[in-house]
Amino acid sequence: MSAHTSIAENIERVRAAIVEAAVSAGRSPGEIKLVAAAKTNPAAMVRQAIAAGVDAVGENRVQEMLEKNAQGAYSGAPLHFIGHLQSNKVGKVVGVCELIESVGSEALLTMIGKKAVSLGIIQNVLIEVNIGEEAQKSGILPERTAQVLEAASQTAGVKVLGLMAIPPVFETNERNCYFFDTMFKLFIDMSQKKYDNVSMRFLSMGMSDSYKEAIRLGANVVRIGSAIFGERS
Questions:
Q1: CB of 90 closer than 8 Å to CB of 166
Q2: Per the domain annotation, does 1 fall within a domain?
Q3: Do the beta carbons of residue 186 and residue 163 sit within 8 Å?
Q4: CATH code where residue 175 lies
Q5: How many whole angstroms separate alpha carbon 101 and alpha carbon 142?
Q6: What are the C-alpha distances in Å from 39 to residues 45, 100, 125, 138, 226?
């Protein structure tokens, strides 16, 4: 973000691009949720993004999230956890975040459920799918999605609201689009199955460099960092 553009102007630009991408795909722009990915950006900048009307704020790191939360950074917008969640940090996120987007294993799902039950709440989650089957990334393998949703349907304390993915990054849009399309097909397939505690409402995929393609191919939640806040220093 240059000194000449404000966070509000950046959000306006992103919103316009969201409208264009949705309309070109014959979709309603109103169904797309804009999550400001706030990693490393201070509380003051997060507040500016909320004032400019983002739908939610996403954080990647638990410690940073707790510090900013203590500063009232998220007042006025739902808070999502979008980063890799370590098992020893589950207790600090459940009940604090409206949605945990990055539940990438059955073990994590079980822990979240136990913590939620102990707090007397239901924690909303998305199941993270490792759509590119990359060894270094968290998330379940695509072919295990039904099995994990089946497990979720029997886990007290959680409600699954959809799927999330961080596809591999390619130089060519064509390759990116392949993974978005594959993910959308998986989402539709899972939407047709009926599980307790599972409501396939959200497909979260697409970031600053790829959100337009993701929307054209079915995403209804996009996680935007640098296009809102500027490049991280």
A1: no
A2: no
A3: yes
A4: 3.20.20.10
A5: 16
A6: 11, 15, 20, 18, 10
Alpha helices (H) in the chain, listed in sequence order: 7-24, 43-51, 62-70, 90-93, 106-119, 145-153, 173-191, 211-216, 226-229
Structure tokens at 121: 């709440």
Give φ, ψ of 162 to 5 degrees.
150, -160
Question: Does residue 128 form part of some domain?
Answer: yes
As given in the structure block, the two tokens for residue 203 are 């497909």
Q: Would you state the pLDDT for residue 3?
A: 42
Joined together, the tokens standing for residue 154 give 């029997």
CA 126/CA 109 separation, integer angstroms: 10
Report yes or no on 2 lying in a domain. no
- Residue 120 domain boundaries: 7-229
Model confidence over 88-113: pLDDT tens digits? 999 999 999 999 999 999 999 999 99
The verdict on residue 147 lying in a domain is: yes
How many structural domains comprise the chain? 1
Which band of pLDDT confidence, cut at 50, 70 and 90, is reported for residue 233? low
Q: Which amino acid is at 111?
A: M
Instruction: State the SS3 of 81-123.
Output: ECCCCCHHHHHHHECCECEEEEECCHHHHHHHHHHHHHHCCCE
Taking residue 217's Cβ as centre, other Cβ atoms within 10 Å add up to: 23
CA atoms of 228 and 11, how far apart (whole Å) = 6
